[in-house]
């Protein structure tokens, strides 16, 4: 299992457009992707789960990868987060 933490700097937080892009990146990952905000968790490959986390600007999220090529998936999601979140 690989875990990464990111702070959301996007003015609109994780709005529908950005959440959709994140889900698209998560779907490209081979293993399971879980996104956690505080005590809430959601499947990173499901838009409804990601939107239900209600991530706002300044919130910290944790992304956990399990299975598949975790290093490759980690690089993919880290690059996405650094450019978009």
What are the key terms here?
Histidine-containing Protein, Chain: A, single chain, globular, 85 residues, 4-stranded antiparallel β-sheet, alpha+beta
Low-confidence spans: none
CATH structural class? Alpha Beta
User: How many distinct beta strands?
Assistant: 4
Give the strand line-up of the largest sheet: 1-4-2-3
| General shape | globular
Query: H/E series, N to C?
Result: EHEEHEH
Question: How many H/I helices?
Answer: 3
| CATH-derived topology | Histidine-containing Protein, Chain: A
* Percentage of residues in DSSP E strands: 25-35%
Cα end-to-end separation: 22 Å
Q: Name the CATH superfamily assignment.
A: HPr-like
Structural class: alpha+beta
Number of domains: 1
> Radius of gyration over alpha carbons?
11 Å
| Mean pLDDT across all amino acids | 95
Give the second-level CATH assignment, the architecture: 2-Layer Sandwich
Residue share in helix: 25-40%
Largest sheet: 4 strands, antiparallel
Question: How would you characterize the overall build of this protein?
Answer:
It is a single chain. A 4-stranded antiparallel beta sheet has the order 1-4-2-3. It is 38% helix and 27% strand. The longest helix has 15 residues, at 70-84. It is of the alpha+beta class. Helix 1 runs antiparallel to helix 3 (70-84). It has a single domain, classed as HPr-like (Histidine-containing Protein, Chain: A, 2-Layer Sandwich). The two termini are 22 Å apart.
């Amino acid at each position: 299992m690989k875990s990464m933490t990111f702070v959301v700097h996007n003015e609109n937080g994780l709005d529908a457009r950005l959440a959709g892009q994140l889900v698209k990146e998560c779907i490209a990952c081979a293993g399971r992707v879980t996104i956690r905000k505080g005590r809430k968790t959601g499947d990173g490959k499901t838009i409804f789960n990601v939107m239900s986390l209600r991530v706002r600007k300044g919130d910290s999220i944790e992304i956990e990868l399990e299975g598949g090529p975790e290093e490759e998936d980690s690089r993919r999601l880290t690059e996405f987060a650094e450019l978009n979140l």
